[in-house]
Amino acid sequence: MRMTVIGTGYVGVVHAATLADLGHEVLGADIDEERISALAAGIPPVYEPGLRELLQRTVASGRLRFTTDMARAARFAPVHFVCVGTPQLPGSKSADLRSVEAVVDALAPHLAPGDLIVGKSTVPVGTAARLAERLRRTAPGAGIAWNPEFLREGFAVRDSASPERIVVGVASGHDEAVLREVYAPMLRDGVPFFRTDPNTAELVKVASNSFLATKISFINAMAEVCDAAGADVLTLAEAVGADPRIGPRFLQPGLGFGGSCFPKDIRGFMARAEELGVGSAVAFLQEVDDINTRQRTRTVELARGLVGGAFDGTNVAVLGAAFKPDSDDVRDSPALAVSRAIRHEGARVRVHDPEALDNARGLAPELQYTLDVPKACEEADLVLHLTPWPEYQAIDPALLAAQVRRPTVVDARHALDAAMWRRAGWSLHAPGRPQPEE
Ligand code: UDX
Protein backbone atom coordinates (compact mmCIF):
# COMPACT_ATOMS: atom_id res chain seq x y z
CA MET A 1 0.00 0.00 0.00
CA ARG A 2 1.04 3.60 -0.53
CA MET A 3 0.60 6.13 2.27
CA THR A 4 2.01 9.39 3.55
CA VAL A 5 3.00 10.48 7.01
CA ILE A 6 2.73 14.23 7.47
CA GLY A 7 4.87 15.64 10.25
CA THR A 8 8.24 13.98 10.81
CA GLY A 9 8.74 14.75 14.48
CA TYR A 10 9.15 12.09 17.04
CA VAL A 11 5.86 10.24 16.39
CA GLY A 12 5.82 10.77 12.62
CA VAL A 13 9.29 9.52 11.87
CA VAL A 14 8.88 6.39 13.98
CA HIS A 15 5.45 5.71 12.45
CA ALA A 16 6.69 6.28 8.87
CA ALA A 17 9.68 3.99 9.30
CA THR A 18 7.55 1.31 10.98
CA LEU A 19 5.01 1.39 8.14
CA ALA A 20 7.80 1.11 5.57
CA ASP A 21 9.24 -1.79 7.52
CA LEU A 22 5.85 -3.52 7.31
CA GLY A 23 6.30 -3.40 3.53
CA HIS A 24 4.33 -0.26 2.64
CA GLU A 25 5.53 2.46 0.33
CA VAL A 26 5.71 5.55 2.50
CA LEU A 27 6.29 9.22 1.79
CA GLY A 28 7.14 11.33 4.84
CA ALA A 29 6.35 15.04 4.52
CA ASP A 30 7.32 18.04 6.59
CA ILE A 31 7.71 21.78 6.07
CA ASP A 32 11.17 21.72 7.73
CA GLU A 33 13.61 21.38 4.81
CA GLU A 34 16.66 20.76 6.95
CA ARG A 35 14.94 17.93 8.78
CA ILE A 36 13.74 16.37 5.53
CA SER A 37 17.19 16.35 3.94
CA ALA A 38 18.65 14.81 7.10
CA LEU A 39 15.94 12.15 7.13
CA ALA A 40 16.53 11.35 3.46
CA ALA A 41 20.15 10.70 4.47
CA GLY A 42 18.98 8.39 7.26
CA ILE A 43 19.58 10.83 10.13
CA PRO A 44 16.71 10.95 12.65
CA PRO A 45 15.68 14.25 14.29
CA VAL A 46 15.65 12.77 17.82
CA TYR A 47 17.66 10.30 19.86
CA GLU A 48 15.70 7.08 20.15
CA PRO A 49 17.16 3.59 20.60
CA GLY A 50 16.99 1.62 17.33
CA LEU A 51 15.57 4.47 15.27
CA ARG A 52 18.67 5.26 13.23
CA GLU A 53 19.04 1.62 12.16
CA LEU A 54 15.34 1.33 11.29
CA LEU A 55 15.42 4.58 9.34
CA GLN A 56 18.55 3.67 7.42
CA ARG A 57 17.18 0.23 6.59
CA THR A 58 13.86 1.52 5.29
CA VAL A 59 15.38 4.46 3.39
CA ALA A 60 17.90 2.09 1.76
CA SER A 61 15.05 -0.27 0.78
CA GLY A 62 13.50 2.58 -1.25
CA ARG A 63 10.17 2.15 0.56
CA LEU A 64 10.62 5.29 2.66
CA ARG A 65 11.11 8.64 1.00
CA PHE A 66 10.69 12.23 2.11
CA THR A 67 9.41 15.50 0.70
CA THR A 68 8.58 19.06 1.65
CA ASP A 69 6.07 19.34 -1.18
CA MET A 70 2.61 19.00 0.39
CA ALA A 71 0.79 18.82 -2.95
CA ARG A 72 3.06 15.96 -4.01
CA ALA A 73 2.34 14.22 -0.71
CA ALA A 74 -1.41 14.69 -1.15
CA ARG A 75 -1.31 13.07 -4.58
CA PHE A 76 1.10 10.30 -3.60
CA ALA A 77 -1.38 8.06 -1.79
CA PRO A 78 -5.00 7.64 -0.72
CA VAL A 79 -4.11 7.45 3.00
CA HIS A 80 -2.48 10.26 4.97
CA PHE A 81 -1.37 9.96 8.58
CA VAL A 82 -1.21 13.29 10.39
CA CYS A 83 1.51 13.28 13.06
CA VAL A 84 2.11 16.96 13.73
CA GLY A 85 2.48 18.41 17.22
CA THR A 86 -0.34 19.70 19.40
CA PRO A 87 1.56 21.59 22.11
CA GLN A 88 -0.02 23.40 25.00
CA LEU A 89 -1.04 26.94 23.99
CA PRO A 90 1.08 29.46 25.90
CA GLY A 91 -0.92 30.96 28.75
CA SER A 92 -3.68 28.38 28.44
CA LYS A 93 -4.39 24.78 29.34
CA SER A 94 -5.70 24.00 25.85
CA ALA A 95 -3.88 22.26 23.01
CA ASP A 96 -2.77 24.28 20.00
CA LEU A 97 -4.41 22.62 16.99
CA ARG A 98 -3.13 25.00 14.33
CA SER A 99 -0.63 22.52 12.85
CA VAL A 100 -3.25 19.78 12.52
CA GLU A 101 -5.67 22.19 10.87
CA ALA A 102 -2.97 23.49 8.53
CA VAL A 103 -2.14 19.96 7.33
CA VAL A 104 -5.79 19.10 6.71
CA ASP A 105 -6.26 22.37 4.80
CA ALA A 106 -3.11 21.76 2.74
CA LEU A 107 -4.20 18.24 1.80
CA ALA A 108 -7.87 19.01 1.14
CA PRO A 109 -7.70 20.57 -2.37
CA HIS A 110 -5.81 17.54 -3.69
CA LEU A 111 -7.90 14.76 -2.15
CA ALA A 112 -10.14 12.47 -4.18
CA PRO A 113 -13.41 10.93 -2.93
CA GLY A 114 -12.56 7.89 -0.81
CA ASP A 115 -9.19 9.27 0.30
CA LEU A 116 -8.63 9.10 4.03
CA ILE A 117 -6.91 11.40 6.50
CA VAL A 118 -5.91 9.56 9.70
CA GLY A 119 -5.05 11.68 12.72
CA LYS A 120 -2.47 10.31 15.14
CA SER A 121 -1.79 13.50 17.07
CA THR A 122 -3.27 13.78 20.56
CA VAL A 123 -6.24 16.13 20.28
CA PRO A 124 -9.22 17.29 22.34
CA VAL A 125 -12.25 15.05 21.91
CA GLY A 126 -14.41 16.34 19.06
CA THR A 127 -11.51 17.43 16.84
CA ALA A 128 -12.05 14.74 14.16
CA ALA A 129 -15.74 15.58 14.00
CA ARG A 130 -14.92 19.25 13.50
CA LEU A 131 -12.34 18.49 10.83
CA ALA A 132 -14.80 16.17 9.08
CA GLU A 133 -17.23 19.06 8.88
CA ARG A 134 -14.52 21.20 7.30
CA LEU A 135 -13.60 18.44 4.81
CA ARG A 136 -17.23 18.12 3.71
CA ARG A 137 -16.82 21.59 2.21
CA THR A 138 -13.19 21.45 1.06
CA ALA A 139 -12.82 17.79 -0.02
CA PRO A 140 -16.23 16.16 -0.53
CA GLY A 141 -16.09 12.38 -0.25
CA ALA A 142 -12.80 12.31 1.65
CA GLY A 143 -12.86 10.74 5.10
CA ILE A 144 -11.24 11.39 8.44
CA ALA A 145 -10.36 8.84 11.10
CA TRP A 146 -8.51 8.95 14.41
CA ASN A 147 -5.87 6.38 15.31
CA PRO A 148 -4.03 7.46 18.48
CA GLU A 149 -0.48 6.34 19.16
CA PHE A 150 0.65 5.19 22.57
CA LEU A 151 4.37 5.02 22.10
CA ARG A 152 6.76 5.88 24.88
CA GLU A 153 9.98 7.78 24.33
CA GLY A 154 12.89 5.43 24.69
CA PHE A 155 10.77 2.49 23.52
CA ALA A 156 9.19 4.14 20.51
CA VAL A 157 10.56 1.75 17.89
CA ARG A 158 9.52 -1.29 19.86
CA ASP A 159 6.11 0.15 20.86
CA SER A 160 5.40 1.10 17.28
CA ALA A 161 6.36 -2.29 15.80
CA SER A 162 4.59 -4.31 18.53
CA PRO A 163 1.78 -2.17 19.92
CA GLU A 164 -0.33 -3.42 22.84
CA ARG A 165 -3.44 -2.36 20.97
CA ILE A 166 -4.57 -0.57 17.83
CA VAL A 167 -7.46 1.84 18.28
CA VAL A 168 -9.23 3.26 15.26
CA GLY A 169 -12.05 5.76 15.38
CA VAL A 170 -13.78 5.61 11.99
CA ALA A 171 -16.94 6.90 10.40
CA SER A 172 -17.45 4.05 7.90
CA GLY A 173 -16.73 0.41 7.13
CA HIS A 174 -14.61 1.57 4.20
CA ASP A 175 -12.32 3.58 6.49
CA GLU A 176 -12.05 0.65 8.89
CA ALA A 177 -11.09 -1.66 6.00
CA VAL A 178 -8.36 0.75 4.88
CA LEU A 179 -6.84 0.84 8.37
CA ARG A 180 -7.12 -2.93 8.77
CA GLU A 181 -5.11 -3.26 5.55
CA VAL A 182 -2.47 -0.80 6.79
CA TYR A 183 -1.99 -2.79 9.99
CA ALA A 184 -2.64 -6.25 8.50
CA PRO A 185 0.76 -7.75 9.45
CA MET A 186 0.27 -6.69 13.08
CA LEU A 187 -3.32 -7.92 13.15
CA ARG A 188 -2.13 -11.30 11.87
CA ASP A 189 0.18 -11.37 14.91
CA GLY A 190 -2.87 -10.99 17.16
CA VAL A 191 -2.57 -7.35 18.25
CA PRO A 192 -5.96 -6.36 19.75
CA PHE A 193 -7.90 -4.07 17.39
CA PHE A 194 -10.56 -1.68 18.68
CA ARG A 195 -12.88 -0.16 16.11
CA THR A 196 -14.87 2.71 17.46
CA ASP A 197 -16.10 6.22 16.62
CA PRO A 198 -13.58 9.08 16.36
CA ASN A 199 -14.71 10.72 19.64
CA THR A 200 -14.04 7.55 21.61
CA ALA A 201 -10.69 7.00 19.89
CA GLU A 202 -9.56 10.51 20.76
CA LEU A 203 -10.65 9.97 24.36
CA VAL A 204 -8.89 6.61 24.72
CA LYS A 205 -5.56 8.39 24.40
CA VAL A 206 -6.19 11.14 26.95
CA ALA A 207 -7.94 8.75 29.33
CA SER A 208 -4.97 6.36 29.22
CA ASN A 209 -2.47 9.12 29.88
CA SER A 210 -4.65 10.60 32.63
CA PHE A 211 -4.85 7.23 34.36
CA LEU A 212 -1.09 6.69 34.20
CA ALA A 213 -0.37 10.22 35.41
CA THR A 214 -2.81 9.65 38.28
CA LYS A 215 -1.03 6.44 39.22
CA ILE A 216 2.32 8.26 39.39
CA SER A 217 0.91 11.14 41.43
CA PHE A 218 -0.84 8.69 43.73
CA ILE A 219 2.41 6.99 44.68
CA ASN A 220 4.16 10.35 45.04
CA ALA A 221 1.41 11.49 47.38
CA MET A 222 2.04 8.30 49.37
CA ALA A 223 5.74 9.23 49.48
CA GLU A 224 4.78 12.51 51.16
CA VAL A 225 2.73 10.61 53.73
CA CYS A 226 5.60 8.15 54.24
CA ASP A 227 7.98 11.03 54.96
CA ALA A 228 5.61 12.39 57.59
CA ALA A 229 4.97 8.96 59.11
CA GLY A 230 8.49 7.56 58.94
CA ALA A 231 7.41 4.81 56.53
CA ASP A 232 9.06 3.49 53.37
CA VAL A 233 7.37 4.27 50.06
CA LEU A 234 9.42 1.75 48.06
CA THR A 235 8.22 -1.20 50.12
CA LEU A 236 4.74 0.29 50.13
CA ALA A 237 4.71 0.59 46.33
CA GLU A 238 5.97 -2.96 45.94
CA ALA A 239 3.37 -4.40 48.29
CA VAL A 240 0.50 -2.32 46.90
CA GLY A 241 1.57 -3.16 43.33
CA ALA A 242 1.60 -6.88 44.13
CA ASP A 243 -2.19 -6.77 43.99
CA PRO A 244 -2.81 -7.74 40.35
CA ARG A 245 -5.78 -5.36 40.26
CA ILE A 246 -3.31 -2.52 40.83
CA GLY A 247 -0.07 -3.80 39.28
CA PRO A 248 3.48 -2.58 39.88
CA ARG A 249 3.99 -0.50 36.74
CA PHE A 250 3.85 3.29 36.86
CA LEU A 251 3.99 3.07 40.61
CA GLN A 252 7.57 4.28 40.88
CA PRO A 253 7.78 7.22 43.26
CA GLY A 254 10.25 9.98 42.61
CA LEU A 255 10.41 13.33 40.97
CA GLY A 256 7.16 12.84 39.07
CA PHE A 257 6.30 12.93 35.40
CA GLY A 258 7.43 15.34 32.72
CA GLY A 259 7.92 15.17 29.00
CA SER A 260 5.82 16.21 26.07
CA CYS A 261 2.71 14.14 26.86
CA PHE A 262 1.47 13.71 30.41
CA PRO A 263 1.56 17.33 31.66
CA LYS A 264 0.10 18.77 28.48
CA ASP A 265 -2.44 15.99 28.00
CA ILE A 266 -3.99 16.20 31.45
CA ARG A 267 -4.21 19.99 31.20
CA GLY A 268 -5.74 19.82 27.73
CA PHE A 269 -8.23 17.25 29.00
CA MET A 270 -9.29 19.53 31.87
CA ALA A 271 -9.74 22.43 29.45
CA ARG A 272 -11.81 20.34 27.02
CA ALA A 273 -13.95 18.86 29.79
CA GLU A 274 -14.70 22.43 30.97
CA GLU A 275 -15.86 23.32 27.45
CA LEU A 276 -18.10 20.26 27.43
CA GLY A 277 -19.60 21.30 30.78
CA VAL A 278 -18.11 18.33 32.66
CA GLY A 279 -15.09 20.03 34.20
CA SER A 280 -15.94 18.64 37.62
CA ALA A 281 -15.68 15.06 36.29
CA VAL A 282 -11.95 15.50 35.76
CA ALA A 283 -11.24 18.17 38.37
CA PHE A 284 -9.12 15.58 40.20
CA LEU A 285 -6.55 15.95 37.40
CA GLN A 286 -5.70 19.38 38.79
CA GLU A 287 -4.71 17.64 42.02
CA VAL A 288 -2.69 15.10 40.00
CA ASP A 289 -0.89 18.00 38.31
CA ASP A 290 -0.31 19.81 41.62
CA ILE A 291 1.05 16.71 43.38
CA ASN A 292 3.37 16.25 40.43
CA THR A 293 4.72 19.80 40.52
CA ARG A 294 5.07 19.58 44.29
CA GLN A 295 7.66 16.79 43.95
CA ARG A 296 9.92 19.35 42.28
CA THR A 297 9.47 21.92 45.07
CA ARG A 298 9.92 19.24 47.71
CA THR A 299 13.23 18.25 46.13
CA VAL A 300 14.40 21.86 46.06
CA GLU A 301 13.42 22.24 49.75
CA LEU A 302 15.23 19.04 50.72
CA ALA A 303 18.32 20.21 48.82
CA ARG A 304 18.19 23.66 50.42
CA GLY A 305 18.05 22.10 53.87
CA LEU A 306 21.02 19.87 53.07
CA VAL A 307 23.25 22.80 52.10
CA GLY A 308 22.43 24.63 55.30
CA GLY A 309 19.32 26.63 54.43
CA ALA A 310 20.50 28.75 51.48
CA PHE A 311 22.08 27.99 48.11
CA ASP A 312 24.19 31.13 47.86
CA GLY A 313 27.82 30.24 47.24
CA THR A 314 27.21 26.48 47.00
CA ASN A 315 28.11 24.06 44.21
CA VAL A 316 25.37 21.64 43.25
CA ALA A 317 26.00 18.75 40.86
CA VAL A 318 23.02 17.40 38.95
CA LEU A 319 22.96 13.94 37.40
CA GLY A 320 20.44 13.92 34.55
CA ALA A 321 18.68 16.58 32.51
CA ALA A 322 16.31 14.54 30.29
CA PHE A 323 12.75 14.05 31.53
CA LYS A 324 13.53 10.34 31.73
CA PRO A 325 16.39 8.02 30.76
CA ASP A 326 16.95 6.85 27.17
CA SER A 327 15.65 10.14 25.90
CA ASP A 328 17.25 13.43 24.92
CA ASP A 329 13.95 15.22 25.54
CA VAL A 330 14.02 18.02 28.10
CA ARG A 331 10.48 19.28 27.55
CA ASP A 332 8.93 19.85 30.98
CA SER A 333 11.81 17.89 32.47
CA PRO A 334 11.53 17.66 36.29
CA ALA A 335 15.34 17.45 36.47
CA LEU A 336 15.82 20.72 34.60
CA ALA A 337 13.05 22.43 36.56
CA VAL A 338 14.78 21.57 39.85
CA SER A 339 18.20 22.58 38.48
CA ARG A 340 16.88 25.96 37.32
CA ALA A 341 15.11 26.66 40.61
CA ILE A 342 18.30 25.96 42.55
CA ARG A 343 20.38 28.09 40.18
CA HIS A 344 17.81 30.85 40.59
CA GLU A 345 18.38 30.71 44.35
CA GLY A 346 22.10 31.33 43.89
CA ALA A 347 23.79 27.91 43.60
CA ARG A 348 26.38 27.17 40.94
CA VAL A 349 24.74 24.23 39.16
CA ARG A 350 26.68 21.80 36.97
CA VAL A 351 24.55 19.32 35.05
CA HIS A 352 25.55 16.01 33.51
CA ASP A 353 23.46 14.06 31.02
CA PRO A 354 24.67 11.51 28.46
CA GLU A 355 22.27 12.55 25.67
CA ALA A 356 20.24 15.66 26.47
CA LEU A 357 22.87 18.37 26.93
CA ASP A 358 22.33 20.11 23.58
CA ASN A 359 18.62 20.37 24.21
CA ALA A 360 19.15 21.38 27.83
CA ARG A 361 21.60 24.13 26.83
CA GLY A 362 18.99 25.58 24.50
CA LEU A 363 16.34 25.66 27.20
CA ALA A 364 18.41 26.56 30.27
CA PRO A 365 21.55 28.47 29.22
CA GLU A 366 22.05 29.68 32.81
CA LEU A 367 23.25 26.22 33.92
CA GLN A 368 26.70 24.72 33.38
CA TYR A 369 26.97 21.45 31.51
CA THR A 370 29.47 18.64 31.23
CA LEU A 371 29.62 15.17 29.72
CA ASP A 372 31.86 14.01 32.55
CA VAL A 373 30.29 12.83 35.83
CA PRO A 374 33.37 13.44 38.05
CA LYS A 375 33.73 16.92 36.57
CA ALA A 376 30.07 17.70 37.31
CA CYS A 377 30.71 16.68 40.92
CA GLU A 378 34.00 18.52 41.41
CA GLU A 379 33.92 20.47 44.70
CA ALA A 380 30.16 19.86 44.98
CA ASP A 381 28.40 20.55 48.26
CA LEU A 382 25.52 18.39 47.09
CA VAL A 383 24.85 15.85 44.33
CA LEU A 384 21.30 15.50 43.01
CA HIS A 385 20.38 12.32 41.13
CA LEU A 386 17.37 13.46 39.12
CA THR A 387 17.14 11.31 35.95
CA PRO A 388 17.84 7.60 36.46
CA TRP A 389 20.19 6.85 33.55
CA PRO A 390 21.61 3.33 34.02
CA GLU A 391 25.17 4.68 33.95
CA TYR A 392 24.57 6.47 37.25
CA GLN A 393 23.88 3.13 38.90
CA ALA A 394 27.35 2.03 37.76
CA ILE A 395 29.09 4.98 39.46
CA ASP A 396 31.67 3.96 42.05
CA PRO A 397 30.54 6.09 45.01
CA ALA A 398 33.93 5.75 46.74
CA LEU A 399 35.71 7.27 43.73
CA LEU A 400 33.12 10.00 43.37
CA ALA A 401 33.42 10.89 47.06
CA ALA A 402 36.98 12.02 46.33
CA GLN A 403 35.67 14.67 43.91
CA VAL A 404 33.15 16.41 46.09
CA ARG A 405 33.41 18.91 48.91
CA ARG A 406 30.73 17.12 50.96
CA PRO A 407 29.55 13.59 50.15
CA THR A 408 25.82 14.29 50.27
CA VAL A 409 23.48 12.94 47.60
CA VAL A 410 19.73 13.14 47.01
CA ASP A 411 18.46 10.13 45.09
CA ALA A 412 15.19 11.63 43.88
CA ARG A 413 14.55 8.60 41.62
CA HIS A 414 15.28 5.76 44.05
CA ALA A 415 17.66 4.18 41.59
CA LEU A 416 21.00 4.26 43.41
CA ASP A 417 22.14 1.45 45.69
CA ALA A 418 21.59 3.34 48.96
CA ALA A 419 23.49 0.86 51.14
CA MET A 420 26.53 0.91 48.84
CA TRP A 421 26.63 4.73 48.71
CA ARG A 422 26.31 4.97 52.48
CA ARG A 423 29.07 2.40 52.97
CA ALA A 424 31.25 4.59 50.75
CA GLY A 425 30.73 7.46 53.18
CA TRP A 426 27.84 9.28 51.54
CA SER A 427 24.91 10.77 53.32
CA LEU A 428 22.13 9.62 50.98
CA HIS A 429 18.61 11.09 51.09
CA ALA A 430 15.68 9.58 49.23
CA PRO A 431 12.23 11.23 49.52
CA GLY A 432 9.62 8.89 50.96
CA ARG A 433 12.20 6.65 52.66
CA PRO A 434 13.30 6.78 56.28
CA GLN A 435 16.75 8.21 56.89
CA PRO A 436 18.99 5.84 58.90
CA GLU A 437 20.48 7.25 62.07
CA GLU A 438 23.88 8.73 61.23
C1 UDX B 1 3.84 8.63 27.80
C2 UDX B 1 2.94 7.39 27.69
O1 UDX B 1 3.53 6.31 28.41
C3 UDX B 1 2.74 7.01 26.24
O2 UDX B 1 1.86 5.91 26.16
C4 UDX B 1 2.17 8.21 25.50
O3 UDX B 1 2.00 7.91 24.14
C5 UDX B 1 3.06 9.42 25.66
O4 UDX B 1 3.27 9.69 27.05
P1 UDX B 1 6.44 9.14 27.65
O5 UDX B 1 6.09 10.57 27.93
O6 UDX B 1 7.44 8.82 26.59
O7 UDX B 1 5.12 8.31 27.30
O8 UDX B 1 7.06 8.57 29.00
P2 UDX B 1 6.71 7.49 30.12
O9 UDX B 1 7.73 6.41 30.08
O10 UDX B 1 5.32 7.10 30.09
O11 UDX B 1 7.04 8.36 31.41
C6 UDX B 1 6.40 9.60 31.64
C7 UDX B 1 6.97 10.28 32.84
O12 UDX B 1 6.53 9.66 34.03
C8 UDX B 1 8.49 10.32 32.93
O13 UDX B 1 8.87 11.61 33.37
C9 UDX B 1 8.81 9.26 33.96
O14 UDX B 1 10.01 9.54 34.64
C10 UDX B 1 7.62 9.37 34.89
N1 UDX B 1 7.30 8.14 35.62
C11 UDX B 1 6.90 7.03 34.95
C12 UDX B 1 7.35 8.12 37.01
O15 UDX B 1 7.69 9.13 37.65
N2 UDX B 1 6.98 6.98 37.67
C13 UDX B 1 6.60 5.86 37.02
O16 UDX B 1 6.29 4.87 37.70
C14 UDX B 1 6.56 5.88 35.62
UniProtKB/TrEMBL annotation:
Binding site for substrate: 150-153, 205, 250-254, 258, 324
Top-level division of the source organism's lineage: Bacteria
Reaction catalysed by this enzyme: UDP-alpha-D-glucose + 2 NAD(+) + H2O = UDP-alpha-D-glucuronate + 2 NADH + 3 H(+)
Domain UDP-glucose/GDP-mannose dehydrogenase C-terminal stretches: 317-418
Keywords: NAD, Oxidoreductase
Pfam families the UniProt entry points to: UDPG_MGDP_dh, UDPG_MGDP_dh_C, UDPG_MGDP_dh_N
UniProt binding sites for NAD(+): 30, 35, 86, 122, 153, 264, 331
Similarity section: Belongs to the UDP-glucose/GDP-mannose dehydrogenase family.
Protein name, UniProt field: UDP-glucose 6-dehydrogenase
